[in-house]
């Protein structure tokens, strides 16, 4: 089916901008035979974890904000989530002590996938993570290692209550993990 088909579903960016009229993208009105079959860019095609559209966030901004923990780059370094960054590192240490692996081995496993993982997320990311500099790539790799190990450890522990967190915080973590925009790229886990 060509991209100019009347059945074409509005794209995420069309919805975000409000360019949808009666279920059809308003940008279709401007399509010509020359541009109707342009394939999506490689970045657009590989993006699988999207931000919540602005119009949905307007209804209730807090509904899409994590309360306790940030997983992935969208809420990276938000001050109210900082406490859990140390906890993720503590769980990482707990995770790696069993197979006697270290941070270096996990970094080496994720580093070659960094670009592919980064492209799973809609842009822009946190400014510390969205530059091409080597240090920013390392921050992104570390974030993915800690977040991925945290999610795996959470699944392995299969717990509803952790004495270090407290029952309230444990429940909040599970609530924060539900929206897809907070997730780690599956390839990391």
Automatic annotation (TrEMBL):
Residues 1-12, 25-41 have a biased composition (Polar residues). It comes from the Eukaryota. Residues 1-45 are annotated as: Disordered. Residues 13-22 have a biased composition (Basic and acidic residues). InterPro entries: DUF247_pln (IPR004158). It holds the Pfam family DUF247. This is Uncharacterized protein. It comes from Gossypium tomentosum.
């Amino acid at each position: 089916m060509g991209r100019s088909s009347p059945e074409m579903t509005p794209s995420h960016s069309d919805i975000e901008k409000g360019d949808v009229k009666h279920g059809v993208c308003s940008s279709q009105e401007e399509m010509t035979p020359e541009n109707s079959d342009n394939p999506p860019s490689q970045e657009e095609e590989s993006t699988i974890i999207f931000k919540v559209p602005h119009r949905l966030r307007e209804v209730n901004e807090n509904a899409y904000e994590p309360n306790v923990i940030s997983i992935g780059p969208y809420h990276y370094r938000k001050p109210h989530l900082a406490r859990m960054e140390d906890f993720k590192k503590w769980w990482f240490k707990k995770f790696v002590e069993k197979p006697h692996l270290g941070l270096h081995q996990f970094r080496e496993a994720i580093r070659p996938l960094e670009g592919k993982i980064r492209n799973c997320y809609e842009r822009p990311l946190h400014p510390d993570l969205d530059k091409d500099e080597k240090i920013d790539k390392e921050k992104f790799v570390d974030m993915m290692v800690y977040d991925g190990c945290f999610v795996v450890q959470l699944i392995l522990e299969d717990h509803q209550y952790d004495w270090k967190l407290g029952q309230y915080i444990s429940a909040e973590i599970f609530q924060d993990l539900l929206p897809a925009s907070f997730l780690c790229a599956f390839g990391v886990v």
